[in-house]
Amino acid sequence: MSDYSITHLRELEAEAIYVIREVAAQFEKPALLFSGGKDSIIMYYLARKAFWPQVVPFPCLHIDTGHNFQETLDFRDKLMDDTGGRCIVRLVQDSIDSGKVVEETGINASRNLLQTVTLLDALEELKFDAALGGGRRDEEKARAKERFFSHRDEFGQWDPKNQRPELWNIFNGKKHMGEHFRVFPISNWTEMDVWQYIYLEEIPIPNLYYTHKREVFLRDGNWLAKAPFMELKDTETLETKDVRCRTIGDISCTGLTLSTANSLEDIIQEVAATRTTERGGRSDDKRSEAAMEDRKKEGYF
Amino acid sequence: MSTDNNPAPGYLDMELLRFTTAGSVDDGKSTLIGRLLYDSKAIFEDQMEALELASKHRGEEHVNLALLTDGLRAEREQGITIDVAYRYFATPKRKFIIADTPGHVQYTRNMVTGASTANLALILIDARQGVLEQTIRHAYIASLLGIPHIAICVNKMDLVDYKEEVYNDIIAKFETIRAKLNLKDVQFIPISALKGDNVVDASTNMPWFTGSPLLELLETIDITTDADFDNKRFPVQFVIRPLRDEYHDYRGYAGRIAGGVFRPGDKVTVLPKGIRTTIETVDTMTGSLDYAFPPQSVTLRLSEDIDISRGDMIVGEDNLPKISQEIDLMVCWLNEKSMVLGGKYTIRHTTAELRCVIREVKFKMDINTLEENTKDKNVGLNEIARISIKTTKPIFYDSYVDNHISGSVSIIDEATNNTVGAGMII
């Protein structure tokens, strides 16, 4: 490689930092959507890099379904403490208590869909005009066509047929009152890129990503974790297994991977060898072929 | 950090190649992309299952790889691609981003969008049909957008008995068009996407072809010289002011390098004020750098405390870009509402935002015949024209052919805030 060549991870990093800085420059009140998962951890890390030595000039926003792994919440709080960051938390439980949403019932009940309402309410309440997210185009078909700067109408909806053209590295965040943007700086990263970047930069991640023993049960081919709000069918039994999370989402829909990977090296090897996509373990995407497209139109990330 | 025990050797040293494809379903583009993804193991089992299921639903006998790229339900229902779809795959040598765009004339805006960041354009020609209007259109857009490398794949060679004459005739025909265009590096490859000839492995059916198969070309084509490393261009994106005890007096200018190499000690000029100063340090959170170059995102500190804001540009001391309020550009119109001659628009140029008025339409380009039309002044959706604009304040720019970042503008409708035009400065 010549003196002026750049590796693909550094190019993706430069692109993401550029997009994050554009958000800080073009919007009055941005927020970084933080879930405690690796993509949002990377996003926060890149935001710190974008503005160093200034602290990140916007807060994080965590929409807490109430069905998170405790480790995720502990990790979030410590990360904010260590870096001088600020994280605003809004609870799906509050949306349920106020009657804005009705909790799903039954065996496959999940609060994943309800998050959208809490998120849109939070954006409105806190007057955020741009929400940065860790969505990646390799995750799902509908995401493959999303812009870096994704325009949302007053109702937070995405219109896939009417997206703004996005050329070169010119991003257009102009909007009318009440409208807002979702912005995806790591659009061009793949799952492998994320892991390699964590490895390259030695970014701390929650221990849930490494192997641990946990009580789990098998449903529709996915291993799900035992939790107080998870109802088991008669045919399902709890077993203790060596598992790790491939994604960290709502416990009710996050499939765990049987794995003994206890280092980043092991995880990367596993990702390299794996034959299913990350979201393949997420039952929320399996509800229909266009599940993600429908949720996005309604205002989901 | 040591890379010695990296479990995926080479991954940390890979380069990124962005390429664009344009074409219709018939010319085998989806099959070709499907093959590249499949052979590089970028298609996962659950995606394959979903594809099989979706193909069955549509009553198709074989797995339809086109469904992999036709992501939105609206598109699947209509059997069309309405947007640019991005696909990713990697080989042990490179990581690839494909901007996959539909090839019909009504999707010119998508092709232009996909082409704007590409290192390479992959153009497919059906060996049975030869050079068509569509081929000319794709080649013109690649030329207009200044894509550094073009790979012309003459596809479906299996259906013309792998005949060298057919391939040679197509190349000869293409060369006559090329004379009218500004294409730098053009490579030709005879392939069969369906049978796999010259896609990943060299074809045994065409021993007369001595060049590289497509994947090898994508893996080895030299992209390190695509950027401008000679002329310093640093559009200031954000001013870093920590305002905390530890970095009380720190003042840095954050941005992404658009051209040239920046080193501590370099003499620079800050536009528009024309103030001369020196680079003090090139900073990142993980340490200061000895030098930085495109497309890195860094923060520059200058030896003097001067008033600089977003939209300003730091350039080489005696290496100024052009500065003017009247510029000519090639524009591709992206909106259903035609361009208004004499109308006012907002434009974005690097990190600056200003206003302009459209003063003149010099000619419209017929992208199927490459003829200039000086009579018709109405520039509508998907049309390409040469126009003159006047801006409210001077912009500092380079010709698009010299620098894609300092030479491009986007045009924004002030009523709808939509991006309606893409301009390449002449």
Write the layout of secondary structure elements.
The complex is a heterodimer of chains A (301) and B (426).
Chain A: H1 8-26, E1 30-33, H2 38-51, E2 60-64, H3 70-83, E3 87-91, H4 92-97, H5 115-125, E4 130-132, E5 149-152, E6 180-183, H6 191-201, E7 212-219, E8 222-225, E9 239-245, E10 256-258, H7 264-273, H8 291-298
Chain B: E1 15-23, H1 29-39, H2 45-57, H3 66-69, H4 73-78, E2 85-90, E3 94-102, H5 108-115, E4 120-126, H6 133-144, E5 149-155, H7 164-178, E6 185-190, H8 214-220, E7 233-235, E8 238-240, E9 252-256, E10 267-271, E11 275-283, E12 297-302, E13 313-316, E14 322-333, E15 344-349, E16 352-366, E17 371-373, E18 384-397, E19 408-412, E20 419-425
Parallel strand pairs in B: 1-3, 1-4, 4-5, 5-6
Antiparallel strand pairs in B: 2-3, 7-13, 8-9, 9-12, 10-11, 10-13, 11-12, 14-18, 14-20, 15-16, 15-19, 16-17, 16-18, 19-20
The CATH homologous superfamily of the largest domain in chain A is termed HUPs
> What structural class do helix, strand and pairing data of chain B support?
alpha+beta
Strand content of chain A: 15-25%
* CATH third-tier fold name of the largest domain in chain A: Rossmann fold
Structural class by helix and strand composition of chain A: alpha/beta
Give the assembly state of these chains: heterodimer
Q: Strands of the largest sheet of chain A, in order across it?
A: 3-2-1-4-6-5
Specify the CATH class of the largest domain in chain B.
Answer: Alpha Beta
> How many domains make up the 3D coordinates of chain A?
2
Write down the Rg of chain A: 19 Å
Main pleated sheet of chain B: 7 strands, antiparallel
Which whole number gives the mean pLDDT of chain B?
89
The CATH C-level name of the largest domain in chain A is Alpha Beta
CATH architectural grouping of the largest domain in chain B: 3-Layer(aba) Sandwich
Helix content of chain A: 25-40%
The CATH homologous superfamily of the largest domain in chain B is called: P-loop containing nucleotide triphosphate hydrolases
Q: Are there runs of chain A of 5+ residues with pLDDT below 50, and where?
A: none
